[in-house]
């Protein structure tokens, strides 16, 4: 029980200092996103100490905007600055976490979500008053950002970390099995598997026609003939014992009806088939997430995307932080009885569930 105490000036001062840090951090997140999207981080990582004019020219950008961006980078201590020569330098220790060569450690990719979420703030505020949700269509770059994130957390680690979680799976894929990815987005992971394992057959479902079009285009460019993509609602696909492996990569918690999706996955798996699910590492009750290093971030993502897109179509609105307890309960209710939870060093946000159909 909380006890009311007298106003503590020291506590208040520490709190307001923290608020100022939050304001600066929120602002710099936007600048990180811009640095990633414009290629400025990648450009500077390849340059010697340079002027703003030289950096802008190398990146093919307008110098005045680059100079102001550099102001944010210098004052946030991301970039070093020599006043006498007006020279900027991007330390390699910083580039290691902010460039496309930093896979799977490129934090700049995830920073793009801040601007994406901010673009729907007005609609989210309306939902606080009126209920309902904000549909996927309002998030203009979401699938693009998720595809980038998938490349560094899933695609780059497929053969070394993710697939080996299931004993014998790589050997089975090499011989030839049937694989379904539910909520495949732009199909980055599935296309990579189709290229690596030509004897297996792959299929990807997603309700976004834009995402499926991008997945099909990439498959065509790669010359793949062992893969298909379809626009399909995961709550209503009805297939029986058709697949040896089904995967979902951060795709269940924001579904309208995760319970129905999991039941459909159970039904579509062949006997002794495997369901590999990557989903958020958290507890279902907020009290269990007090020490979670990214809990505020994930609850914000949930409020402004994962929960609201589900509610927008009359769904359950479980949200990003549905947690391990709810996940395990829903898997059991779907019919699964054999579940293992694994964690990988390169992915601090997610659990990897290895689920077998007995």
UniProtKB/TrEMBL annotation:
What's an example Gene Ontology biological process for this entry?
methylation
Keyword annotations from UniProtKB, A to Z: Methyltransferase, Transferase
Q: Which InterPro entries match?
A: Methyltranfer_dom, SAM-binding_MTase, SAM-dependent_MTases_sf, WH-like_DNA-bd_sf, WH_DNA-bd_sf, WHD_Rv2258c
Pfam families for the chain? Methyltransf_31, WHD_Rv2258c
Which intervals hold domain Methyltransferase?
A: 174-289
Q: Specify the S-adenosylmethionine-dependent methyltransferase Rv2258c-like winged HTH domain's residue ranges.
A: 26-100
Which molecular-function annotation in GO is an example for this chain? methyltransferase activity
Keyword match Membrane: no
CDD domains on file: AdoMet_MTases
Q: Would you tell me the protein name for this molecule?
A: Methyltransferase type 12
Q: Which organism is it from?
A: Stanieria cyanosphaera (strain ATCC 29371 / PCC 7437)
């Amino acid at each position: 029980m909380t006890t009311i105490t007298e106003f503590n000036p020291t506590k208040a001062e520490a709190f307001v200092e923290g608020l100022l840090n939050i304001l600066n951090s929120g602002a710099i997140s936007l600048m990180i996103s811009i640095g990633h999207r414009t290629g400025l981080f990648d450009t500077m990582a390849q340059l010697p100490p340079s002027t703003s004019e030289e950096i802008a020219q190398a990146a093919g950008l307008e110098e005045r905007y680059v100079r102001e961006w550099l102001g944010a980078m210098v004052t946030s201590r991301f970039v070093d600055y020599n006043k006498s020569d007006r020279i900027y330098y991007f330390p390699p220790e910083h580039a290691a976490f902010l460039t496309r060569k930093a896979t799977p450690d490129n934090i700049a990719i995830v920073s793009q979500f801040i601007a994406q979420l901010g673009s729907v703030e007005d609609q989210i505020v309306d939902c606080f008053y009126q209920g309902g949700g904000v549909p996927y269509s309002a998030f203009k770059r979401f699938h693009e950002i998720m595809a980038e994130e998938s490349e560094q957390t899933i695609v780059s680690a497929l053969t070394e970390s993710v697939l080996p979680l299931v004993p014998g799976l790589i050997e089975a894929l090499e011989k030839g099995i049937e694989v379904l990815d539910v909520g495949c987005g732009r199909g980055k992971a599935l296309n990579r598997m189709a290229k690596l394992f030509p004897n297996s057959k792959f299929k990807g479902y997603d309700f976004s026609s834009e995402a499926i079009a991008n997945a099909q285009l990439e498959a065509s460019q790669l010359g793949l003939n062992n893969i298909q993509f379809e626009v399909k609602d995961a709550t209503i696909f009805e297939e029986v014992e058709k697949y040896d492996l089904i995967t979902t990569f951060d795709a269940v918690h924001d579904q309208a009806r995760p319970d129905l999706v999991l039941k459909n996955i159970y039904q579509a798996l062949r006997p002794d088939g495997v369901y590999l699910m990557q989903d958020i590492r958290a507890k279902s009750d907020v009290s269990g997430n007090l020490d979670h290093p990214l809990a505020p971030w994930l609850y914000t993502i949930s409020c402004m995307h994962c929960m609201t897109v589900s509610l927008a179509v009359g769904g359950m609105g479980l949200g990003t932080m549905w947690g391990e307890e709810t996940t395990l309960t829903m898997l059991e209710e779907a019919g699964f009885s054999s579940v293992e939870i694994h964690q990988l060093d390169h992915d601090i946000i997610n659990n990897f569930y290895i689920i077998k159909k007995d």
